[in-house]
Amino acid sequence: MDATSTLLIPALYFFAGIIMGKVINHIGQYLPYLITEHDSQEPSTASMPHSAWKLAYCSCHPPAHWHDYVPVFSWLALRGRCRVCSAPISPGYLWVELICGILALCFSLLFPPAIALALAVYSGFLLTLSLIDARTFLLPDKLTLPLLWLGLLFNSFSDGVSLTDAVYGAVAGYLLLWSLYWFFRLASGREGLGYGDFKLLAALGAWTGWQMLPQITLLAAASGLLWAGLSKWKKGEWIAVLPFGPPLAAAGWLTLLIHWYIIR
């Protein structure tokens, strides 16, 4: 491989990654809006795409320009402020795009192309789910179920986990949190988990196999406790409700990444 190709391929992965980050930002705002509209039984189908873009951009509803769709550049060109009302636009949008680009770049340098692509898709789903759950306490089936099926499909072709272990992982992941949910509910009379958490762990099991589920669950629980502890230290009070999706996603992401890095 010549020097040009050596530089071009990682660059293409980086640009594909920041584009994926732009899509993640949009879905992170758009999908909860769709779910809310559907649950309210008053869907405004004609205005959904436009309204969803407004929601992701600024509360003053500025018109979208073509360069608003260019990842990274759009935020920098506006200097992090709305062009109409000058309200600050969260730098989180910029960071999501940059993180996705950097991850895709790293995957292209560390793994074969097929594995790098699969890990990028896996990371994109988990990041989207984490953002949505942190903002809305939702883990939509429209994301968790495709992630589960993609995990089974991936392991039917890869050498990482056998398809049998992946299927067992999906079933065991769901049943593990389902059992904890009912144990806690019967013991305390309260709900400690949501059904979206069951499906997310099932999806993680489909990607990592049943053998990795104990460490994913323990790592997620430890991460959640750390998150709650940091919040208590910073704000002086405990979080009333903690979304479990982000800790689960982080634990599942780290587990699969280490697994593939070791066996590559």
UniProtKB/TrEMBL annotation:
Keywords: Cell inner membrane, Cell membrane, Hydrolase, Membrane, Methyltransferase, Multifunctional enzyme, Protease, Transferase, Transmembrane, Transmembrane helix. Residues 121-228 form the Prepilin type IV endopeptidase peptidase domain. GO terms for cellular component: plasma membrane. Residues 19-108 form the Prepilin peptidase A24 N-terminal domain. InterPro entries: Peptidase_A24A_bac, Prepilin_IV_endopep_pep, Prepilin_pept_A24_N, Prepilin_peptidase/N-MTase. GO terms for biological process: methylation; signal peptide processing. It is a multi-pass membrane protein. The chain crosses the membrane at residues 6-24, 98-125, 166-184, 204-227, 239-263. The keyword Nucleotide-binding does not apply. Pfam families: A24_N_bact, Peptidase_A24. The keyword Transmembrane helix applies. Gene3D superfamilies: 1.20.120.1220. One of its GO terms (molecular function) is aspartic-type endopeptidase activity. It catalyses: Typically cleaves a -Gly-|-Phe- bond to release an N-terminal, basic peptide of 5-8 residues from type IV prepilin, and then N-methylates the new N-terminal amino group, the methyl donor being S-adenosyl-L-methionine. It comes from the Bacteria. It is found in: Cell inner membrane; Cell membrane. Its EC number is 2.1.1.-, 3.4.23.43. Belongs to the peptidase A24 family. PANTHER family: PREPILIN LEADER PEPTIDASE_N-METHYLTRANSFERASE-RELATED, TYPE 4 PREPILIN-LIKE PROTEINS LEADER PEPTIDE-PROCESSING ENZYME. This is Prepilin leader peptidase/N-methyltransferase.
